[in-house]
């Protein structure tokens, strides 16, 4: 050990000798800094090209972000229309047509769809027979109301076309925001959905299509149609996307910025355009006008540049005789349909301030040289002693040695503050290290608890895990989980050691007395923490009640923690409350998931029994068959599971899921009868179909005789 210590000390001395002493070399250091500043100043004089590139890169970065924002907006608008069409095209056949008439069962669905998607002009479907049903989002816009001849206050317009080919009727209904009818009209139908481009392109195909931008037939506004063939019947479901919301977003994104943004369709027609006054005022750009035919010189120059740029890229170019930067993005609104977003700006608008910054840097550099050289030597000696002391103290801190008390007194305020910080840092690091260790332990426990809660599928183990985790995180002596019952009371959950109905707490009770903490926590949706309460042991008790609220706001119950020991007074500090609230959120999610899964299972079982009952009700001769078979099948399965020898000795259902699958199969064994003709199911004799064919046999015998 002495030899080892001596060797280490020798190496440390060698390292110290290779290091520079600040108090000896500070003047040289300042001279070196002065020399470096001089070199930097000389370099800045010769770096004008670099500053110009910086200006171009700055402009390019800004308009890259602008192009990305507009591309994402276009993608989100198109994505909303695509999702609406995909959902509408998957509906069952009876949702579109019932008893030979266009069904209005979709009215509420289409109204809600148009209402929650402001960019949608309308959603509709057309059938092969010429039937048509459409909901238009008027939203009390004067232009749309005028085009549709709708009354004031109209929020939605509902159009339906029905009837035979010789007499087709078109009906209009106008609804307010509350879906109350404001008026309507009807007349001979001239609109035939089968002849529209969106129907012709989508019909017979198995993919989503986007029609080229056009003027809507009902309002004359420009827009895009996304459509897809119906899966359950012969027809097409479509949605119209108004270009006005896209134009508003483009205008907002270019506000206060030089240059402009233009969005083009696959044929390079202008869908939306906005920019600075210089760009917009150079020439009017009508919607859907081809880029090479507009009167704006900026867009006319842009047309040639876009011919060679068909993908996402950034570049420099000249527009209207001036250097510009260009950011180009492509957006696929539907398979095979690609739109482009181009953002451009003059380079001069960004290079001016950078050149000014360069000149200012040069001036500041000269001033620094003039001031720093005379003061370097005077200040170095005063600072060297203080820095040397701080360096020694920092070396001890680096070795995790927080002992000693180094006091630094210097003419520099920063050095004094740094010396005080070193003194307080040692104690703070020690305290914070312990606090961080405890917090880390709790965070690790919280992660483990979350994983454990997500893996539990039964209610009692889940409740036990929640209570054990709550006690471990908070250090509480007891924990209770009270859940909301159908009687609108709080009752201890099974597995929490509660007293059942005897321990219920009414949530609606209001007899003038103080509310129970659990009731107060649920009503106010906040954590109730009470420390220092009187206890029977003469000390202070603590209580923490955290509400369990599902993601939809439904109150599930409360987690109640208590500690009656005087030694644990104030145990529920602010940091502990946060950990318990995080646990309560995980517990609420786990309980809500269990409730949803159980509700889904009950609903599915009820639906299966409903289908079986409907099958039994189709025929009086086979009535009750679908209800009796599951009982007999379960009896046979239970008997087979009890067999210990013979061919069925290995037959077993090993889990509740397997038993449930078997029960569902037994209930649905005759589900095919739902589509079987009634004359096949409802048979009084073996030869009966539409009538009893025994009479045909009698007739044949008569003919033979």
Tell me the major beta sheet. 8 strands, antiparallel
Beta-strand share of residues: 15-25%
Helix content: 40-55%
Strand order of the largest sheet: 7-6-5-4-3-10-9-8
By helix and strand content, what is the structural category? alpha+beta
What global shape is seen? flat
Compute the gyration radius: what is it? 40 Å
Number of helices: 18
- End-to-end Cα distance, whole Å, is 129 Å
Which regions have little confidence, pLDDT < 50, spanning 5+ residues? 1-6, 15-20, 565-569
Number of E-state strands: 21
Mean pLDDT: 76
Describe the 3D structure.
The protein is α+β, with helices and mostly antiparallel strands and 705 residues long. The protein is built from 18 helices and 21 strands. The protein has helices at residues 2-18, 22-45, 48-89, 107-116, 142-148, 197-202, 244-254, 277-280, 297-306, 348-398, 413-455, 459-474, 517-524, 574-617, 625-641, 656-667, 678-681, 694-704; strands at residues 97-98, 101-102, 120-127, 132-137, 156-164, 167-175, 181-188, 209-215, 222-229, 235-242, 260-264, 270-275, 313-319, 322-334, 337-346, 478-484, 489-492, 505-506, 528-534, 540-549, 555-563. The strands form four sheets. The chain has an eight-stranded antiparallel sheet. The chain has a six-stranded antiparallel sheet with strand order 18-17-16-21-20-19, with helices on both faces. A five-stranded antiparallel sheet has the order 12-11-15-14-13. Helix 11 (413-455) runs antiparallel to helix 12 and helix 15 packs antiparallel against helix 16 (656-667). The radius of gyration is 40 Å and the shape is flat. The N and C termini lie far apart (129 Å). The model is unreliable at 1-6, 15-20 and 565-569 (pLDDT under 50).
């Amino acid at each position: 050990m002495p030899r080892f210590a001596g060797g280490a000390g020798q190496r440390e001395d060698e390292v110290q000798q290779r290091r520079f002493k600040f108090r000896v070399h500070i003047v040289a250091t300042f001279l070196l800094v002065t020399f470096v500043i001089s070199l930097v100043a000389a370099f800045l004089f010769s770096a004008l090209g670099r500053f110009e590139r910086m200006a171009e890169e700055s402009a390019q970065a800004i308009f890259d972000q602008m192009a990305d924002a507009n591309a994402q907006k276009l993608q989100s608008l198109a994505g909303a229309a695509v999702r609406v069409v995909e959902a509408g095209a998957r509906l069952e056949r009876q949702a579109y047509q019932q008893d030979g008439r266009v069904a209005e069962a979709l009215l509420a669905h289409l109204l809600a769809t148009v209402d929650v998607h402001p960019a949608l002009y309308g959603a509709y479907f057309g059938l092969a027979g010429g039937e048509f049903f459409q909901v238009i989002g008027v939203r009390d816009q004067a232009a749309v109301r005028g085009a549709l001849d709708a009354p004031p206050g109209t929020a939605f317009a509902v159009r339906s076309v029905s009837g035979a080919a010789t007499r087709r009727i078109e009906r209009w209904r106008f609804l307010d925001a509350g879906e109350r009818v404001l008026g309507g009209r009807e007349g001979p139908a001239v609109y035939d959905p089968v002849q529209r481009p969106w129907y012709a392109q989508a019909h017979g195909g198995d993919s989503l299509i986007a029609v080229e931008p056009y003027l809507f037939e009902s309002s004359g506004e420009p827009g895009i149609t996304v459509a897809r063939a119906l899966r359950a019947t012969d027809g097409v479901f479509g949605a119209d996307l108004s270009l006005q919301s896209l134009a508003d977003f483009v205008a907002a994104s270019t506000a206060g910025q030089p240059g402009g943004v233009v969005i083009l369709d696959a044929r390079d027609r202008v869908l939306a355009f906005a920019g600075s006054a210089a760009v917009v005022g150079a020439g009017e750009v009508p919607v859907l006008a081809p880029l090479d035919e507009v009167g704006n010189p900026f867009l006319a120059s842009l047309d040639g540049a876009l011919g060679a740029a068909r993908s996402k890229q950034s570049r420099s170019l000249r527009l209207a005789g001036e250097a510009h930067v260009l950011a180009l993005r492509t957006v696929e609104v539907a398979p095979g349909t690609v739109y482009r977003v181009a953002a451009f700006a003059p380079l001069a608008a960004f290079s001016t301030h950078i050149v000014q910054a360069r000149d200012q840097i040069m001036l500041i550099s000269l001033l620094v040289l003039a001031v720093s050289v005379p003061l370097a030597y005077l200040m170095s000696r005063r600072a060297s002693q203080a820095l040397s002391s701080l360096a020694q103290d920092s070396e001890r801190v680096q070795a995790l040695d927080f002992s000693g008390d180094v006091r630094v007194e210097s003419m520099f305020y920063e050095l004094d503050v740094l010396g005080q910080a070193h003194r307080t840092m040692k104690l703070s690091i020690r305290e914070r290290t312990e606090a961080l260790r405890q917090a880390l332990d709790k965070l690790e426990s919280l992660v483990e608890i979350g994983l454990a809660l997500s893996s539990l599928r039964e209610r009692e183990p889940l409740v036990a895990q929640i209570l054990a985790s709550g006690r471990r995180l908070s250090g509480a002596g007891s924990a209770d989980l009270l859940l909301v019952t159908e009687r609108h009371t709080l009752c201890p959950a099974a597995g929490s050691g509660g007293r059942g109905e005897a321990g219920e707490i009414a949530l609606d009770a209001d007899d003038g007395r103080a509310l129970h903490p659990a009731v107060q926590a649920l009503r106010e949706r906040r954590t109730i923490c009470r420390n220092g309460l009187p206890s029977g042991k003469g000390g202070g008790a603590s209580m923490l009640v955290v509400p369990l609220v599902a993601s939809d706001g439904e109150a599930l119950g409360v987690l109640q923690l208590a500690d009656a020991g005087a030694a644990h007074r104030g145990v529920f500090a602010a940091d502990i409350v946060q950990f318990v609230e995080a646990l309560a959120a995980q517990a609420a999610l786990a309980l809500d998931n269990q409730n949803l899964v159980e509700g889904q299972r009950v609903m599915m079982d009820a639906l299966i029994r409903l289908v079986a009952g409907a099958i039994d009700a189709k025929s009086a001769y086979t009535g009750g068959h679908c209800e009796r078979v599951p009982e007999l099948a379960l009896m046979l399965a239970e008997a087979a599971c009890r067999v210990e020898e013979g061919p069925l000795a290995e037959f077993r259902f090993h889990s509740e899921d397997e038993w449930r699958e078997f029960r569902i199969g037994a209930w649905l064994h005759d589900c095919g009868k739902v589509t079987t003709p009634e004359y096949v199911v409802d048979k009084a004799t073996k030869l009966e179909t539409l009538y009893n064919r025994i009479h045909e046999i009698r007739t044949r015998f008569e003919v033979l005789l």
